[in-house]
Design goal:
The complex is a heterodimer of chains A (103) and B (246).
Chain A (H helix, E strand, L loop, with lengths): L2 H18 L11 H30 L2 H17 L3 H19 L1
Helix pairs in contact in A: 2-3, 3-4
Chain B lengths: L21 H13 L2 H17 L4 H10 L3 H12 L4 H11 L2 H13 L4 H9 L3 H11 L5 H30 L11 H11 L5 H16 L8 H14 L7
Helix pairs in contact in B: 1-9, 2-3, 2-4, 2-9, 3-9, 4-5, 6-8, 8-9, 11-12
The chains are: A mainly alpha (103), B mainly alpha (246).
């Protein structure tokens, strides 16, 4: 299956998720456990994907700069409550450390 | 100021309807969405840049916008396609991230029961976290349901336009940025930022810790199944953690 076809299938599945309960006209009530799982799966997915992305990025530049950048980004995101702060602080940290290591 | 009670004999019959018109509701919905747009635009730029930098056709990366239409799920799809994951893994992960949309769908279905099928097909397509938040606020107000539908469409429509524009700009600019910037770390950093603000409960913290451990252990898993295994493990730990445990 090509990348475009995969995206189209994932998109169709996502649309069916959106549409799934609309046909029921609000007559279906969720168990609290299912609703809880639907919300908890988001941070689990992001944590798993972030870990893979961070490990992949250590290939060319070593482990210290990306790990330090992620640490600085995580602290800034937690303090500000804004996920974009992780990029705003993490990327400059990475560039500075890369420049120091390369110097 | 005129009184508005119908029983008041002093009110002339030709007093304009005090309820906002449909167009005014569309604008009100767009205004309610405006507060979300700076963050949404930044997020869309990140998704667009990651799509441009990924080892996949540019069209596939951009298509995640109008098809999958959800930042987290789009990032997951781009990340996995870039890593060469099997299509079934990509689709399963996207559906896992978007599973919460079923809950949103159920929450709004009752309000949409009396609308036309075409309207429901469109409204469901536009359903994502910000449009749900803006829409449900208005639906919970008493009164005019038709106005609430227009309010939803106004906010959700503006969100859709902004999101696709941001992705397009990000994808166009991202392809021209130098490799020395190491932009491959932008998406992991964004995901880390998204994770840390969701760690308010013990269940989320323990689950994420488990997901990280399994993701590290599963980096060499066949078919790029490591992330899926990590998600399942994290969810299992989170769901078996009592919320009152510290």
């Amino acid at each position: 299956m090509t990348a475009v076809a995969t995206v189209l299938v994932a998109g169709l599945g996502s649309y069916l998720l959106r549409l799934s309960m609309v046909g029921a006209g609000g007559r279906i009530r969720w168990l609290p456990q299912i609703e809880r799982a639907a919300h908890l799966v988001v941070p689990m997915t992001f944590a798993a994907l972030a870990t893979g992305g961070i490990l992949a990025s250590t290939g060319g530049i070593g482990i210290v700069p990306p790990i330090a950048a992620v640490g600085a980004g995580a602290v800034s995101a937690q303090r500000t409550g804004r996920p974009y702060a992780a990029i705003a602080v993490g990327m400059p940290t990475l560039w500075v450390l890369n420049a120091l290591v390369g110097a | 100021m005129l009184a508005t009670t119908a029983a008041d004999p002093l009110i002339p019959r030709d007093v304009p309807d005090p309820r906002p018109t449909r167009r005014a509701d569309l604008v009100a919905g767009a205004r309610a969405m405006a507060a979300w747009l700076p963050g949404i635009a930044a997020y869309g730029l990140v998704v667009g840049v990651s799509a441009a930098r990924a080892d996949m056709p540019a069209l596939a990366g951009w298509l995640t916008g109008p098809t999958i239409y959800g930042g987290g799920a789009q990032v997951a799809a781009i990340d996995l396609l870039d890593a060469g994951a099997a299509p079934v893994v990509v689709v399963a992960t996207v559906l896992a991230v978007n599973a919460r949309l079923v809950v949103y769908s159920a929450a709004l279905a009752g309000f949409w029961r009396t609308t036309s099928r075409r309207w429901r097909l469109l409204a469901a397509y536009l359903l994502v976290d910000p449009s749900f938040a803006v829409g449900v606020d208005r639906y919970r107000e008493p009164g005019d349901r038709v106005g609430a539908h227009a309010h939803y469409l106004g906010g959700a429509g503006l969100l859709w336009i902004t999101w696709l524009a941001a992705i397009t700009v990000g994808a166009t600019a991202g392809a021209r940025l130098p490799g020395g910037l190491h932009l491959e770390l932008v998406v992991p950093l964004f995901l880390v930022g998204e994770v840390v603000r969701r760690l308010s409960s013990p269940a989320a913290r323990r689950g994420c810790a488990a997901a990280v451990v399994v993701a590290v252990a599963g980096t060499a898993a066949p078919l790029h199944l490591g992330p899926v295994a990590a998600i399942v493990a994290g969810l299992a730990v989170a769901l078996t953690t009592r919320e009152d445990r510290r």
